[in-house]
Design goal:
The complex is a heterodimer of chains A (about 400) and B (about 70). Chain A is built from 21 helices and 2 strands. Chain B is about 80% helix and about 0% strand. The chains are: A mainly alpha (about 400), B mainly alpha (about 70).
Amino acid sequence: MPDIDILNIFQGVATMVAASPTVAIARIVLIALGVLFVYLGANGTLEPLIMIPMGFGMSAVNAAVLYLSATTTGTIFLDPMVSEPGSLVSILQIDFLQPVYTFMFSNGLIACLVFMGIGVISDIGYMLISPFRSMFIAVCAELGTVLTFPIAVALGMPYKEAAAIAMIGSADGPMVLYTSLILAKDLFVPITIVAYLYLSLAYAGYPYLIKLMIPKELRGIKMDPGKNPKVSKAEKMTFAVITSVLLCLLFPVAAPLFMSFFLGIMIRESGVTQYIEFIGGPVLYGSTFFLGLLLGVLCEANTILNPKVIMLLVLGVVALLISGIGGIIGGYIVYWMSGRTFNPAIGIAGVSCLPTTAKVAQKAAREANKLALILPAAMGASICGVISSAILAAIYVTLLR
Amino acid sequence: MENIWGATQFALIVYGIGAVVSFLVAWIITLTFAAIRMHNRRNAAPDESKPKGSPESAPAGPKKAA
């Protein structure tokens, strides 16, 4: 009978025992954190669409470390560091999530598919009601995307990494993923995880920021829905085509994102039900599911033990906080310019976490005044936020790539 | 310190370009609106200028009923 080493049967435990105490503790913490994310996602505290698959992947990958050879350990989920073609072909046949990672994630396709889905669920009619006003709020709400950059440089980060982390201020997950894949490939996993984690928390944190900065009587200002002009499908489609071509012409490096978003809008307005249902359903939710799962699987202890992660956690909060404050300041400026008829809570919707921040603004207004309906204007600012953050991402990528 | 000042200048330039392009998009929207509405108004104008007695402009319902 051959010798049986009990630990060799249970290799997840064996690799934990053999690892350094730091890595072993990190693995245990990440397993627990993954379970916590699943729990918080399931009970609605965090965004369930991302957090459930992400938490599940995070806990599974940190448990499933095995001996790949006598001296090396790893998992058979995926290997993000493989780039040499021969090794990649071998890994594609072994690691079960490697095809999704290589052909959808690392080239930004998954971000574009999510963006296409966002286009399909966005009614740009809201934005076309008052384009300059909505865009002004969106530009103000990009303050975090801009001010976090010099702060990150001051903390010792190189320009490319500083730009990638500053993009968290745009509060747009696919945008952060796309930018960090191009500008900070080594840090894109922690940056994207921090971004998605904070985007989930923004839903809980921004209402307090609104209450802190805007008194109840201003939060309760009613917007006049009668002033909203009707926007035809032809107008929306013309806008989508012209803007897409213009932005692709100005920033070819971000053309996949622009094209995806405006194609989504075009599909929505074209009324082709089959496409709308396919892209707004299986494509959007399938991409979001695999995005969450892959982010979780990429949360291996060795990746998270990068000393820069603590800095990313701090800078992520700073970026979102400054963007929120900038948006509300923008809301106040429009309030004064409109003769005090504009609800300044709409400013938070300029932070482009579509449609979360628009819902946050509406909820804050409804709490102050049950008759206050500001969702159309807030959705307009939010959609403008998506466009302005794509423009800023394109400028960062073009100048720093 | 120089690096931070350089980064601040860079960030402000990015913000400036971003703001200009964003407002350019808003301007395109306004222009698109104006062009489409002007086109629609022009299309509607010949219909309105037709004489009231002409068969195209007469209300069809009651005549058909008669």
